[in-house]
Amino acid sequence: MTHETSRRKFLSMAAASGAGIALAGLAASANASSPAGTARSAFGPVRQIDAGPLDVGYVDLGPRDGTPVLLFHGWPYDIHSYEDVAPQLAALGYRVVVPHLRGYGSTRFLSGATLRSAQQTALAADAIALMDALGIRRAIVAGCDWGARNACVLAALWPERCQALVSVSGFLVINRAAAAVPLAPADELSWWYQFYLATERGRLGYEKNLKAFARLIWQQASPEWHFDDATFERSAQSLVNPDQVALVVHNYRWRIGLADGDPQYDTLEEKLAKVKSVALPSITLEGDANGAPHPAPASYASRFTGKYEHRNLTGGIGHNLPQEAPDAFVKAIVDVSRW
């Protein structure tokens, strides 16, 4: 028996063993989150690879010949949104890749001359470049917040590279024309940070109070999630990145037409604007205590024209759903991968 054969046999046995353990707990604790204050080892190791315009920091778990799953985080979160999800999926035999988006963690631009754009197609193009760099032809794509949008954009623009989709809060592709239409006052109020960041005062405020700002968003977005200081700090450290402020400000200003995009993504944005639906197998998720702005499930159900299911989670689950309800997120990945 060769070394490679032995390795594959070991991984297969480990995955099978993990599958039995993990699946046994999914149904019983689908909405459970890890207890606050529980000691844990570091989520990693964080590897680095050049991909497109970036030196990307990413976690890569599970057998290399397993079904690839790409998990994307949002703002102001980081890869630790999947610190419980990724190991479970790896134990089930999936190859799980969790990258720091541009402006987070150890991800850096390779050139100081690159426009610091955080428009939706820039982030999606980063994901395709990462897949190419890692030799991943096709993957299940999933995410929450900015990461859910990223997964939806990938499914819309590169369906041939995506096996299936899991998205928290539905079809989040930005339509800038629609974003220019005023909302009801109560809905506008929930977007206070977008308007704050549209000002120079807001940019300076975010820069000066980076972690305090992030903690406030966490509390607003997940009012019933009683995360501890250690949990917050693990993610907040990733916001201390030289491009964080510029990219977050650009993202929110670009959405409402106050900042131009990077011209290199114009063609992708034009193509994306014409995509009205996704035909991939898809599952959307929503927590019952999501305090962040989010659409009603009925408003996006028609966007998914392939096999589709929406799941409402109860028990005080907020916006950062993968970290608050990791078992339910794992189950969605496993289920959609079998469709």
UniProtKB/TrEMBL annotation:
Q: What are the GO BP annotations of this UniProt entry?
A: acylglycerol catabolic process
Which PROSITE patterns does the protein's record reference? TAT (PS51318)
Stored InterPro entries: AB_hydrolase_1, AB_hydrolase_fold, AB_hydrolase_sf, Epox_hydrolase-like, TAT_signal
Instruction: Recite the UniProt keywords alphabetically.
Output: Hydrolase
Any one Gene Ontology cellular component term annotated for this protein = membrane
UniProt cross-references to SUPFAM superfamilies, sorted A to Z: alpha/beta-Hydrolases
- Domain of life from the UniProt record: Bacteria
UniProt KW Zinc keyword: no
Q: Which GO terms describe its molecular function?
A: monoacylglycerol lipase activity
Entries under PANTHER family matching the protein: HYDROLASE, PUTATIVE (AFU_ORTHOLOGUE AFUA_2G14860)-RELATED, MONOACYLGLYCEROL LIPASE
Protein name (Swiss-Prot/TrEMBL):
Alpha/beta hydrolase
**Organism of derivation:** Piscinibacter gummiphilus
